[in-house]
Amino acid sequence: MSNLHNRTSISYSRFSSDQQKKGDSLRRQLEIYQAIVQQHNLVDIGQAFTDEGKSAFKGKHLDGQLGALIELLQQQDLTAKPVLVIEKWDRLSRLEMNATIDLFRRVVKYADILDASDGALYTSESMNDITGYITLGLKAHQAHIYSKNLSDRVRDAKKRASLESGNKRIKGRNYPHWLKVENDIFVVVEDRASTINKMFELKMQGMGTRSIAIHLNQNFSEYKSWDNRGNVSGEWLSGTVRNHLKNIAATGVFQNKDVHTVDYYPRIISDVLFNNAQLTFKSQKQSAHNTNKRNGDNILYHVKCMCCETSMTFAKRKVSILACSRGKECTNSSISYSLVEEVTCDVLFEAADLSTDTETKVDDTADKRNELIADLNMLKQRVDENTAAGKRTSAMLLLQIDELEQEIETLIPVIKEFITKPAERYWDLLKGSVEDRLRLSRYIKLNVQKVEVLSVSRKRKFIVVVINGNRYPVEVKVKPKVGYEYWTIKGVDDGVALI
Fold first, then answer.
1. What CA–CA distance (Å, rounded) separates 319 from 336?
2. Cα(115)–Cα(140) distance, integer angstroms
3. Which terminus, N or C, of the chain has the lesser number of Cβ atoms within 10 Å?
4. Residue 217 and residue 222: Cα distance in Å, rounded?
5. How far apart are CA 101 and CA 81, in angstroms?
6. Alpha carbon distance 335, 323 (integer Å)
7. Which residues lie closer than 8 Å to 117 by C-beta, 6 or more apart?
8. CA separation for the pair 216, 378 (Å, rounded)
9. Digits of tens for pLDDT over the chain (499 positions)?
10. What is the DSSP string of 134-186?
């Protein structure tokens, strides 16, 4: 540590809540400051800044005494930097990592920061040193995540207590959209409630969700659909119908995690009708063949959602899509049907038969990458254990983590190998007549065991085609208004996540 003898010192203290004001947080921080002054023979000039009830997680202290302190430091013309003494580094910030590092850099331009908890001294030089940068970055990230989790738990506890007491918290649009809010109370939107009732009526008549969606679309003028913002939207999908049929809010119940509050919403469905409808989901067997297989629009079989392993539903639109049958219950978004169809056929007729000299090299690269990832996870576990035990993590360990992450990153591009263009022998069938597409469909059914789909984002998709027990993962990059490119991913073992 640099020689602090006879250096000018400034005190900064902070606590987050009014409850801490009643305790000894401020007294303890000031006592620690005086002890540090004596220990290092600092010169206390009586400049003390305190933010009472200011959260460092939300950054409110930046508009308080901390902001005033930084402004004062910028205006002072001192031959030597003063020493800003804090009880612990996170008294200055619990913001996100980048914001915390930026704040420290602003301060160390005008004053060195002394952390009384471990004696660490933050200076302009240390903030430009890779070890100091990584150490502070890791501390900041862990503190921010801790504060965020704590904030979430407190907010959830307050919300849960409010709901369990029967208080209605009408905020935003987070309520069923067969309801509206007038004068701070829920009011039933009659035409939408009638549509929900119709869904339950048809379900009890033995219709499946797809058949219900078709019926509603055929009578769309009477049964208009709506999106998750409550606005009138396009045609009904079977997944959306399923979500409404399984939504207990129709019986007036608010349910969220472990909170179950009855008579929270206006009831539009009886408990008996709702419970009987749920039983039909278990008793009804879906048809092995659906109508869209008869006209060649959908020639694929056994297309599954990679998130929840349920079936993907085909929806014919201007641009036909595949969507998870669980609808909003699943995080996987829809994907272009034509994309999945083309990739499946390309893998079936091209990639599944490929045998190249580069495959061994690709597999070796993947094995090395997996070994590095295992080493990285082991080092990160040691950091977590140190944090849980209140121990400091050595800079050497942090550097090892950084080097491993960089090495892993350099291996990613060589795992991908572009595949050839679609072969004419099946391309003609894809673009041919209904009979041609149905012939191709029968061939796909015999040879493709399963197709798994994951929509990571609008521009990035993953498709896994399973043929004869072998998995062929494909990554797709979508280029809006242009098309898409895709390539097989070699060396990915079963059970290894694609992303």
1. 7
2. 14
3. C
4. 9
5. 19
6. 7
7. 87, 88, 89
8. 54
9. 557 888 888 888 887 765 555 556 778 888 888 888 888 888 888 888 888 877 666 777 777 888 888 888 888 766 678 888 888 777 777 788 888 888 888 888 888 888 888 788 888 888 887 777 777 777 777 777 766 776 666 666 655 555 555 555 555 557 888 988 888 788 999 999 999 999 999 888 888 888 898 889 888 889 988 877 777 888 888 888 988 999 999 999 888 766 778 888 899 999 999 999 998 886 654 444 344 455 778 889 889 998 888 888 888 877 889 988 888 778 888 898 989 998 888 888 775 553 333 333 444 556 677 777 888 888 888 888 888 887 777 766 776 777 777 777 665 444 444 433 333 456 667 777 777 788 788 888 888 899 999 988 888 888 999 888 888 888 888 877 667 777 766 544 443 444 3
10. HHHHHHHHHHHHHHHHHHHHHHHHHHHHHHHTT-----TT-S-TTEEEETTEE
C-alpha angle 331-335-337 in degrees, rounded to nearest 5: 145
CB within 8 Å of 55: residues ≥ 6 apart: 16, 61, 94
Which tokens belong to 234?
Answer: 């396009």
Tokens of 66: 């901390």
Which residue spans within 214-302 are E strands per DSSP? 254-256, 259-261
Spatial distance between the Cα atoms of 353 and 363, rounded to a whole number of angstroms: 17
Q: Render 310-329 in DSSP notation, one character per residue.
A: PBEEEE-SSS-EEEETTGGG
The C-alpha atoms of residue 228 and residue 217 are separated, in whole angstroms, by 18
- What tokens appear for 406 in the block? 């960089």
Q: Looking at the whole model, is its pTM more than 0.85? A: no
Give buried/exposed letters for 444-482 (b at 16+ CB in 10 A, else e).
beeebeebbbbbeeeeebbbbbbbeeebbbbbbebeeee
Both structure tokens of 30:
């000031």
Calculate the CA dihedral of residues 34, 67, 121, 109 and round it to 10 degrees.
-130
Q: Is 303 exposed, middle or buried (0-12, 13-18, 19+ CB in 10 A)?
A: buried
Tokens of residue 305, six digits: 């959602």
Report which of 309, 313, 311, 307 is spatially closest to residue 292, judged by C-alpha positions: 313
Cβ neighbours of 386 (radius 10 Å): 14
The encoded tokens of residue 199 equal 């869904």
**Which residues, 6 or more positions from 380, have their beta carbon under 8 angstroms from its beta carbon?**
401
